[in-house]
Amino acid sequence: MFEVTRTMGLNVHIYPSTLINASRIGRLARSIQDTGLFAETHAVGICSGNLAAVEKLSPRVKIVRIRGTLRKGILGRILKLLLWQPRVYEAYKRQNVAVLAAHNVWVLPLVYKLSRKTGAIFAYNAHELETETINLKGVRRRVAKFIERRYIKHIDIVSVVNESIADWYELAYRIQRPIVVTNTPIDDGRDSDIRGELGLSQHDMLYIHTGNLVAGRNIPLILTRFAENPNVHVVFLGDGPLRSSILSTAERYSNIHWLPPVAPNSVVSYVRGADVGLCLIEHVSLSDKFSTPNKLMEPLAAGIPVLSSDLVEARRLLGNKAGTWVINTPEHELGDALQRLGKEDVRCFQEDWRGIPSWETQVEPLVVAYREVV
Questions:
Q1: How far is residue 177 from each of residues 163, 172, 316, measured CA to CA in Å?
Q2: CA-CA 20 to 30 A from 189: which of 68, 108, 204, 269?
């Protein structure tokens, strides 16, 4: 199943998930494979249910799913450790592997052991501030910190998703500053008719919230404040547990709307049809405060401003515009912001907004690092 006939080795990325909609891993895999350094690039995840064991992303880039469990909780974590990780090890221990990349703190021991067995270069592509998430508490956080501190000095290439997290890793572990590869969204260049779908005109002030409709995004607060400000509209583009609450509120207030999720390549085109993006991430963990959410990057990629909670990266990206578009305490300031901001503020933002770097520009330092070590 995994035999490779060319003399060049494999580039392998390991992440304990089904890899459904794992856009960051897919983009990294394709960009690194395009260097011509590797026979193939494999993104290795968990096979469960009717998911395909092998899924091609391009001629020499594939998702390889190995049988495991998606069970939650302590039992699920134990089963991944005892079943899925050993199966990954067995699948690749005799392969000609050039580089192995962990995409999660919990697979660092596996990737280290496999790199020692195969002689592969050891990489770590952290998707967030791995040991400081809201889900990690007590013993689990202490174990995660131990694992990361134990293995990080053995890693040849460390990459993270933004400048703030790079600073944190450099200071916390006294390592060379990690490479930064920010998640610049894909933009298909189209302009959607989102206002037509919602029955709105160009004169209506429209805010847009993208992504999962879950806790931690201040969604109940958004619903309350827009209900109090009927002259401005908000649309939620996405799905999740809070959809029913949004729909029930939308039935009572004509300025609150919901649209189902669209293909990842189309999100920016929908956002471009709005006036302002919403990124009101709650500071429930240090990882959240240092995050670069898609709902922050998608409006900026679309060339419209984003009304954001006080995220480190929001302030860095917005620069001197942060005073207008970053609010310190959404629960106290969101209502005032909806009354204060208008079409003229959007126009002022767009007049001198220079955009964000493309994905190709962002990933280039990592590509260079791969070339150097391989």
A1: 10, 11, 18
A2: 204
Cβ-contact 118, 89 below 8 angstroms: no
Q: Which residues contact 67 (CB under 8 A, 6 or more apart)?
A: 46, 47, 48, 83, 84, 87
Instruction: List, in order of start, the domains of the chain with CATH numbers.
Output: 10-184+361-373 (3.40.50.2000), 194-352 (3.40.50.2000)
pLDDT in tens, 224-260: 999 999 999 999 999 999 999 999 999 999 999 999 9
Question: 14-59, pLDDT tens digit by residue?
Answer: 999 899 877 889 999 999 999 999 999 999 999 887 889 999 999 9
Cα–Cα distance between 255 and 235 in angstroms, integer?
A: 8
pTM: 0.88
Spatial contact of 62 and 54, defined as CB atoms under 8 Å apart: yes
> Tokens at residue 255, please?
């300025």
- Which DSSP helix (H) or strand (E) runs through 350? helix 343-352
